[in-house]
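Mods, move this if it's the wrong board.
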Amino acid sequence: MVRLFGVLSGVLAAFAFLGDLACAQPSLEIVGGAKFDLGSLNRGEVVERELSLKNTGTDTLVLENVQASCGCTGTLVSNNRIPPGNAGTLKITFNSKNFTGPVHKSVTIRTNVPANPTTIIEFTATVMQEIIVDPMQFWFKDAEVGRATTATLTFKNVSTQSVELRGYRTQLAGLTLKLPDGEIKPGTEVKIVAEFTPTNAMPVISDAVFLLTSNPRQAEIYVPVFGNAKEFKFE
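Not the wrong board. Structure tokens:
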């Protein structure tokens, strides 16, 4: 009888152990919440926010995938396996160079949490600018090889200080800019003329030019360049 009781106790203990294993589950807590605001940023500013990811469960938390909603946002996790009771960090980096006004972005974390495998982190910001370019890109449609095509944009100083255009840089061969001389006073605007002479045919142009200014908060202004270039044909 004693021996039988011992066997039964061992079996019950084994079942209890297996039950504990079956119930062991990870759980993800975003310490401080899954939403935050980066506040007001100057256009072109790059900011970082570090979040604490805590495993409040009883099994190892596995961060299977971390994906940002767009290329303007970078992510870096300290460890993709977090033991129970421990915490890791998620660094989120946002580059505001292509934005103006209110911004809303997200980062999606996929984990091994059975009840909630997807966690979404959201952040907002307001991107301010002291210089406005209109339109926000140069567009060259059907440019012809060996022939100059022009595009124009308006550069407006909406700050309280005068600003100068100090130059530009681009990797697009055949693209040159005609920049105005002298200071651009607050509340005034000037025209910038881009001249593009393609050296070879390109079905799609997707490049950029950076305007260099004396404004310390917008020292570089990113202007995309789009369009296409085709071979010149005599009519």
